[in-house]
């Protein structure tokens, strides 16, 4: 029998449980209470935590008829609650679909950013080294051919300067000239990087494209091969072919600077290369040796690469 005291019992159900008859109507967690009052009546009370809905159906234990009526009302109340929850779930699906649209838009933006980044892809280490070796080999072969042809032409009496006037000889005092060239050019480069924005951007673009994918030992290859081959062509072949004087040195240096345009290098970098080429040409005229500009050029390339590596490494550590 039921007493007049008030007491209750609680039944907790899980989301989408397959063990409860409420699974089709109550997809979220909640609580079901049964309470009794002093009049010997009882009620079913449903508290839904997700949406706060509450359905109450009253009945009486006095007659069987009232019990049946209470059961019918309780079933109707649960059905209505389930319908309201289904509507709420529909709203959630709508919000979810909107979220999917937003995610799709974001994926489109990410795809565009990936496409834009493809245009700035840095060449691989293998590609850089292959290009360096191939280009240096072709330049050196052209310089060597010009030297040989000019020598043969001068011997048969044709009006050509003999490029053999610039030899591969080396003397001790050439070391002082080499160190002076390396020091003066390095100081000039460092000063321009700090004061000339356009030159700094050109240098950064060129160095990033060439040096980013390389290992430390590769810096020797990309520094010495171009240094030797370019000086063999410009100061070992073209300069004596035009004449060993400052006018010829300036003309050859201008060609040398113009060929340094492109690959992110602007007009400012061409001016710098022209200045450096003129310095190498003067050293060639003074020493009559192509070894001096070769050594100075290669060492300056190496110092520039190491300086860029240290600067980029420091900036990455600061950003991280």
TrEMBL record:
Domain CAAX prenyl protease 2/Lysostaphin resistance protein A-like: 215-303
Positions of transmembrane segments: 128-146, 166-190, 241-260, 267-285
Region (Disordered): 66-93
Thylakoid recorded as keyword: no
UniProt xrefs under Pfam families: Rce1-like
UniProt GO molecular function: endopeptidase activity
InterPro entries (alphabetical): Rce1/LyrA-like_dom
Keywords: Membrane, Transmembrane, Transmembrane helix
Highest taxon above the source species: Eukaryota
GO biological process entries: CAAX-box protein maturation
The name this protein goes by in its record: CAAX prenyl protease 2/Lysostaphin resistance protein A-like domain-containing protein
Organism field: Saponaria officinalis
